[in-house]
Design goal:
The strands form 4 sheets. This protein has a 3-stranded antiparallel sheet with strand order 3-10-4. The chain has a 3-stranded antiparallel sheet with strand order 8-5-9. Strands 1-2 form a two-stranded parallel ribbon. The longest helix is centred in the first third of the chain and has 17 residues. The chain is globular and about 60 Å long. The protein contains 14 helices and 10 strands.
């Protein structure tokens, strides 16, 4: 079992490996925190690992080189078909959480301007400052495309990478930031995530990728991961990430505690 090199991925790595071991006779070796998207995918296709949890948007755009779209069903079906044809990799059922982009504001800002959706933001954007990451400023599936889709015109844009943009929000140096929907900092700062009511952002649902020969030899893996997936909602992953990044818990302990709580049996 492999994973990429950030908190959410480490949690998923330990959780899925323990779920498989708890419900089958398979012994799982963990290779969590291997690196970025290309590194882990190469490890899979080079038979260095057997499976890992990836994200639909990453596979669709970064691996399969398609232009980002927001059609969840089309993205999933395309990935499932092309991963099998090109790489002999099986794509299992999507998990419940979608770690995609979002716009977030403080509770106070949301109440002041009655903001629930991104469309609501268009009424007052010219009075507000947005402080997104530099990547979000330059991605077509980020701020440039968002402005076109919703007709947003902010008072100013200040690029701030990483967690300092959350501080800018708390200090009212900015009123809007970009975030990922499962980011633990959303919970820490008790922010309001605005609904993407036009479905602009591409889907980044978590999807298990398994080498075809591995799944053929151990078909019970699919049953376990299909049973686990529905438990992992946006809110659940946000809380699990928060427990590691902000409370300081060990990723493996957070993963095993959650499995014990839901008492997953297949």
């Amino acid at each position: 079992m492999g994973s990429k090199d950030f908190t959410e991925q480490e949690i998923l790595c330990y959780m899925t490996s323990h779920a498989i071991e708890n419900n089958t006779d398979i012994n799982v070796e963990e290779e969590c925190n291997l690196g970025g998207a290309q590194v882990v995918f190469s490890a899979l296709t080079n038979n260095n690992i057997d499976l890992y949890i990836d994200y639909a948007g990453t596979d669709y755009t970064d691996i399969l080189k398609h232009k980002p779209i927001s059609d969840v069903d089309k993205v999933y079906k395309t990935i499932k078909k092309e991963m099998k044809e090109k790489y002999n990799v099986e794509v299992l059922n999507q998990m419940a959480f979608n770690n995609t982009y979002a716009l977030a504001v403080t509770k106070e800002t949301a109440e002041k301007y009655n903001l629930k959706t991104i469309s609501d933001l268009t009424r007052v954007a010219n009075d507000l400052i947005i402080a997104p990451t530099l990547e979000f400023i330059n991605r077509e599936d980020g701020l440039p495309g968002l402005k076109k889709e919703y007709g947003l015109n902010f008072k100013d844009t200040i690029g701030i990478d990483g967690s300092p943009r959350y501080t800018a929000l708390q200090n009212n140096n900015a009123q809007v930031i970009d975030a990922f929907t499962t980011d633990g900092l959303l919970k820490k700062f008790n922010l309001t995530v605005l609904e993407d009511d036009k479905n602009f952002f591409p889907p980044y649902y978590a999807i298990p990728l398994v080498r075809s020969d591995t799944l053929k030899e151990y078909p019970e893996i699919e049953k376990v991961l299909n049973a686990l997936g529905p438990y992992l909602t946006d809110e659940v992953m946000q809380d699990l990430n928060y427990q590691v990044d902000e409370v300081g818990k060990n990723p493996e302990k957070v993963a095993t505690d959650f499995l014990n709580m839901i008492n997953l049996t297949v």
